[in-house]
Known about the structure:
Elements: E1 2-6, E2 27-31, H1 38-54, H2 64-73, H3 93-109, H4 128-138, H5 141-144, H6 147-159, E3 167-168, E4 175-176, H7 177-189, H8 201-211, H9 220-229, H10 260-275, H11 283-292, H12 320-337, H13 343-363, H14 371-384, H15 389-397, E5 402-405, E6 408-411, H16 417-430, H17 434-451, H18 485-498, H19 503-506, H20 512-524, E7 532-533, E8 562-563, H21 564-580, H22 586-602, H23 618-631, H24 640-651, H25 665-668, H26 681-693, H27 696-699, H28 702-714, E9 728-730, E10 734-736, H29 741-756
Antiparallel strand pairs: 1-2, 3-4, 5-6, 7-8, 9-10
Helix pairs in contact: 3-29, 4-7, 4-14, 7-8, 10-13, 10-14, 13-14, 14-15, 16-17, 16-18, 16-29, 17-18, 18-20, 18-21, 21-22, 21-23, 23-24, 23-26, 26-28, 26-29
Amino acid sequence: xxxxxxxxxxxxxxxxxxxxxxxxxxxxxxxxxxxxxxxxxxxxxxxxxxxxxxxxxxxxxxxxxxxxxxxxxxxxxxxxxxxxxxxxxxxxxxxxxxxxxxxxxxxxxxxxxxxxxxxxxxxxxxxxxxxxxxxxxxxxxxxxxxxxxxxxxxxxxxxxxxxxxxxxxxxxxxxxxxxxxxxxxxxxxxxxxxxxxxxxxxxxxxxxxxxxxxxxxxxxxxxxxxxxxxxxxxxxxxxxxxxxxxxxxxxxxxxxxxxxxxxxxxxxxxxxxxxxxxxxxxxxxxxxxxxxxxxxxxxxxxxxxxxxxxxxxxxxxxxxxxxxxxxxxxxxxxxxxxxxxxxxxxxxxxxxxxxxxxxxxxxxxxxxxxxxxxxxxxxxxxxxxxxxxxxxxxxxxxxxxxxxxxxxxxxxxxxxxxxxxxxxxxxxxxxxxxxxxxxxxxxxxxxxxxxxxxxxxxxxxxxxxxxxxxxxxxxxxxxxxxxxxxxxxxxxxxxxxxxxxxxxxxxxxxxxxxxxxxxxxxxxxxxxxxxxxxxxxxxxxxxxxxxxxxxxxxxxxxxxxxxxxxxxxxxxxxxxxxxxxxxxxxxxxxxxxxxxxxxxxxxxxxxxxxxxxxxxxxxxxxxxxxxxxxxxxxxxxxxxxxxxxxxxxxxxxxxxxxxxxxxxxxxxxxxxxxxxxxxxxxxxxxxxxxxxxxxxxxxxxxxxxxxxxxxxxxxxxxxxxxxxxxxxxxxxxxxxxxxxxxxxxxxxxxxxxxxxxxxxx
Length: 761
């Protein structure tokens, strides 16, 4: 059976691992043939069968392998009887508190020993194949990916193949060329023949590729990976010159002006492009050349397919100005830079690019900023030195990205350990069940404290295009190292709330100096318009650069932006900080809050909602906006934006009392309800809390009673809630799965309901 190991620094390349906090938050799956009882194995197999049977309607897993292990390790038994509220019955205080206590008991039981809540954070279907392709190229596939790994990765691919034979951009998406070609290659690398795979998966995938124009229609990231693998020619790719990294900082286009994710994806891509690296042309590669293209490989005119992209993949069409730029680089610049004497400049650029790659690797303990960057940086290190320690340090961190559940094994974005923990802790604190949850809160508090980043990046970090990180919290763990504003605000909020409780219950409070460091991070990330950026400050006078977005399937990736959820969370956190530490930078904090609240009012949509950038979608954004406005002193009575936000929630409540929003709201940028007007427990919790924050109970509690009834009746026998549609998103078009949301936010909403709404006993 698979076993989840927590906060351990072991592994086949363990001597190349290092950590800033003894691996707190690390979560690694290992296969142990002797682990578990026959009953445990039967339970896992049953979970796998049920997922496969229902995969066409329920795309997201419940993380049942993790649940099974932690519930058993924590000796969980749900002793509180389940309650249901009849169709013609009202919600009572007893029914609401009983459901809340059952949910709190369950949430406490899926906490790990180091204090975090392990969970998958994935969903995109382009995360797995590049890792497999990279390990195949470097010759380390079999040493890192065991037969059991291969079995589970194939299971995941099969479970998320669409009925038409293709694979979507994410687990709920329509089939696209990018993920279908990559999934096809991945299956073949893992041992499936041209007609192999479950339910004829390989042949069905190949048919989809051929029916939609063949692999030449793959978007630009796919063209890059196919070129690396020997299935495409680099002359069919738009230029990615590494000389970009030696431009002066005052140049109109410079890496330092770009959003960190965009910068760090194209950094190793430009190195591999500059090298024109191609992996070994094995028999499999030669076979794949015949299988994924619709004409003989040697007859393809590569320069003619540079701008070709399948219509299924095209979310962000390139403007003419961008195509002109690529054509100019392709026709005039690249021929010069690959010939003497200008090739000396390329050599210099490649060295500078590699210097940046090593810097980012070392400062993230080889986790890097995310899984897309991770694999590219790992391959670049191998290309530079196949036997070097840089590459081996990368191999040591590969297990950090692998996650297994009942639908198989996938690759994580990089983990949401800190993010999930902050919401779980706030939900438990809202329950006012200190006696029952004290140990859970103590461990959660300890994890959050140990996860705060204590230092800035090493050396002259600004020269290396990095922002301050001291005092921040990352999305995952301290080793990751990348500051994130909303994680910092939620981490700060948790520490402030827990500091008001007795230390013998929840542990010693965080030192004021470390709180001040967190405040400094948040203040540093406010934009001129009052909104809060996520990773780095918004660069002024650079908005035109979004016209150069080189991807076809993501939007607004070139620059950092301000986000409604980051802004709302910061106001909420600063309101509490100002109350507890009134003397620290008070004027700056007050100005920050005023400007941030004004920004929220300015960006409200015409229908009263706010567009959420990291959750689906208007439900998520509107909850965080109303939470922030309330903390800034804005109420239903004194703020039009609050009234309009409330009306949006009230107007979108479903007949069953819940709320449900489709992921299509994100790419379409307009509210789209779930098909069939279904509800989703997580989105119901967001809407419910947004209304409670806005004092809906004082005006008319009926919508809250209806929502509470929906949540109460949705709870499962063991205190869990059903896993429904995915609720996270990334750059408008890529959905993310957050399994802990269904436990944390539902509990939080029920707790606020019990606290704020008058109920019959």
